[in-house]
Design goal:
three-stranded parallel sheet; RNA-binding; mainly alpha; 20 helices; elongated; three-stranded antiparallel sheet; 12 strands
Length: 467
RNA sequence: GGCCCGUUCGUCUAUCGGUUAGGACAUCUGGUUUUCAACCAGGCAAGAGGGGUUCGACUCCCCUACGGGCUGCCA
């Protein structure tokens, strides 16, 4: 047996959980969960200037909503800073890193000179790389990796293949800042190693970084993890995803009523495929997910397809579960919580709307007839008796009207609703609508009439036609 | 500028040297429908361009174009 798979998602808490980040998390989650491995979460909060607790919380809630559960507690990278510094100093001792006393101004001047001289690249070459400790000044310093100047570094990537980077394009990256804090390049490697991460699945914007990070693994004699650099998601126009493309935070999708299962399905299918399978559960995705199925080109977001997939997921969701999600959606999106009666009606009537809504928002919209309060009738018990929605729903095995009497009763209430909602006179409506319905060979279903309630246009058309 | 990655219908993609280049979403047409939705039938639509390699290239190699990324004491 090979050792257990350990993946991780390591977002930097500088804003909401981005849709692209969510997909990266999803891929890691699928890979680990599909192999009985572990999926860890680490918050890359070493940049204290940009760090906000709110952003970290947003990432947590975003992942929770998507159903991407991680093992153990979320690790704070910042809290590992002492360990990072220790590793930096250990490399110093091993001679694989060195103290650099160059100031920012000196570095900038170095680059400016190179540029002025028409140099093809501006990799900073520190004068302190091979300086004798005796010559060290009493000044702040950073710790830099002593990167190889010749040869090449090979990244064996599961998605991109063998990527070869010339070492002379790699600089002596800073691993420990002058204030003693670690840089990202050091922190990721140390944390991934300490957390036992075996597979690093991340955006391909890190592909070049992998070469730099391998230096640290090598310097410490650690095993290099399996790399898998996945292409980023782009907006519908093919450009890098940004605010102007609309919703980019997963929270936005939750607010718009997209089901998490549909999001997982769509997002996993974006840049990854398993033959012609389009609609599947997360359990299937876990079983199927693997690196060969991942594409190498960035994929564009297609909201229409997202909606379609989400609609399919809503349609197959069990009522109890659907109701739970609907309830959550309602509270999150600022709607009033359902009353006992509304909840009951919704549950019984779900069957007639669940397969025609693409989002929870649309489902609620279509279910308005169930949630709207019934018209006030003199006698309360009579109102309940006359309510065709409740009656029809109670008998959902036979949703079609069975008797003329029932149809008549139903009509009266519906017409009252319509009249109240659209300000159309009750009397003017009753006759034409009744006629329209009676003209059919098939008895109109409760559902048909429910829809009539929600459609003023139809009402007026029927009215006009009959006038 | 340098380095790295990418490029099949509008979109997501299948294909892993030999196919009428398949599917899905979108779109269009027809059917069904008292409306919407749903559903049924059908249509349109693709290998960026140029060179090779090969009996044969979407598939392998090179160049160009375009897109993206990296090139920080950001992550």
């Amino acid at each position: 047996m090979t050792k257990q798979v350990v993946t991780r998602f390591a977002p930097s808490p500088t804003g909401d959980l981005h849709i692209g980040g969510a997909r990266t998390a999803l891929f890691n989650w699928l890979y680990a969960r599909g192999r009985g491995g572990k999926f860890l979460l680490r918050i890359e909060d070493t940049d204290r200037e940009r760090y906000t607790p709110a952003a970290a919380a947003a990432i947590i809630t975003g992942l929770q909503w998507l159903g991407l559960d991680w093992d153990g507690d979320a690790v704070s990278q910042f809290e590992q800073r002492a360990r990072h510094a220790a590793v930096a100093h250990e490399m110093l001792g091993r001679g694989t890193a060195y103290k650099c006393f160059s100031t920012q101004d000196e570095i900038a001047a170095f680059r400016a000179d190179k540029e002025a001289a028409g140099a093809s690249y501006a990799v900073f070459l520190s004068p302190w790389r091979d300086a004798a400790p005796a010559s060290y000044p009493e000044a702040p310093y950073v710790i830099r990796m002593k990167a190889p100047r010749v040869g090449e570094t090979v990244i064996a990537d599961q998605v991109q293949g063998r990527v070869i980077i010339r070492n002379d394009t790699l600089d002596d990256m800073v691993v420990l800042r002058s204030d003693g804090t670690p840089t990202y390049m050091l922190a990721v490697v140390v944390d991934d190693h300490d957390m036992g991460v075996t597979h690093v699945i991340r955006g391909d914007d890190h592909l070049n970084n992998a070469a730099r990070q391998q230096m640290v693994y090598d310097a410490m004699g650690w095993d290099i993890p399996v790399w898998a650099h996945i292409p980023l998601i782009h907006g519908p126009d093919g450009k890098k995803l940004s605010k102007r493309h609309g919703a980019t935070a997963v929270g936005d999708y939750q607010l718009q009523g997209y089901p998490a299962a549909g999001m997982r399905n769509y997002l996993s299918r974006l840049g990854w495929s398993h033959g012609d399978d389009e609609f599947f559960t997360s359990a299937q995705a876990m079983e199927w997910f693997d690196f060969p199925g991942i594409g190498r080109a960035p994929a564009r977001l297609d909201f229409k397809k997202l909606e379609n997939i989400c609609g399919q997921h809503i349609a197959v969701t069990e009522n109890a579960a659907l109701l739970r999600e609907l309830t959550l959606f309602l509270t999150v999106s600022g709607h009033l919580p359902l009353t006992e009666i509304q909840r009951d009606r919704l549950e019984r009537g779900l069957y007639c709307v669940k397969d025609r809504a693409k989002t929870f928002a649309e489902l609620i919209d279509k279910a308005e007839f169930m949630l709207a309060s019934r018209p006030i009738v003199a006698d309360d018990s009579a109102a309940i008796m006359l309510d065709p929605v409740s009656r029809g729903i109670l008998r959902d095995l036979t949703p079609r009207l069975q008797t003329a009497q029932w149809t008549k009763d139903a009509l009266e209430v519906i017409l009252a609703d319509v009249a109240a909602k659209y300000g159309i006179g009750f009397g003017k409506l009753a006759a034409p609508l009744r006629a329209a319905l009676a003209g059919r060979t098939v008895t109109p279903s409760v559902y048909d009439m429910m829809l009539v309630i929600g459609q003023a246009e139809t009402i007026s058309r029927i009215r006009d036609a009959a006038a």
